[in-house]
Amino acid sequence: MNFITKENLQQLLEKTSNALLSMARDHCWNKISDNSLYIISEDSDTELNSFARNKIRKLVNDKKTPQQLSALMPRLNDVYSDTYEFNLYIYKAKRDKTIIEITYRIKRYYGYDAEYKEMIKNSPPLLHCKVPIPYYAHIMQGKNKQFNINWELYPIDHVLRLFWHRLKYKFHRFF
User: What's the pTM?
Assistant: First the structure.
C-alpha cells in the first residue's frame, strides 16, 4: 500500500489521472484525450441538492484557467497537511484535451465527530478517482449504456434525456 506524501503526490496524481481516463473510456462514448489539464477546487459540505451544487460548480469552474499538474503542485503541497482526501473527476472532455478537476476536502471541515477528527488528524490524505454516472444510465441498454462524460455540464443530449425520462415518468403514473 502506497501512502501519499508530499514527495510522491504528483506521481500518484498522474497515475490516478491515467486510471480515471481509463475508467471514463470504459463507461463513456466520448473521445477522451490523454492531453490532461487540471483545475483545483475545495470541496465543502453544503446543504444544497446536487442540481444546485453542479450549477454553482460549473459557474465557478468555467472561470478557472486549466493548467498543467506541475503548475498546480505548489498549491496542492500547501494544503497537503490539512487535507483529508483528494478526488479526481473529469470536468470536461474534448477531443484535444481533458480537464480534470482535483477537489480536496479539509480535515477540520470534515463532518464527523470529535473522536474521528482526532483519529484522522495525523493521517495522510486519501486519493480517489471517480466517474459520475447519470441517474438514467441503469435504464440504458447495450452499447447505448455508455453515456456522455460531460453530462454534468448539461449538454443537449443530457437535457433531452432528462426531458424524456420526466415525460415518461409523468405518463407512467397514470397507467
Answer: 0.81
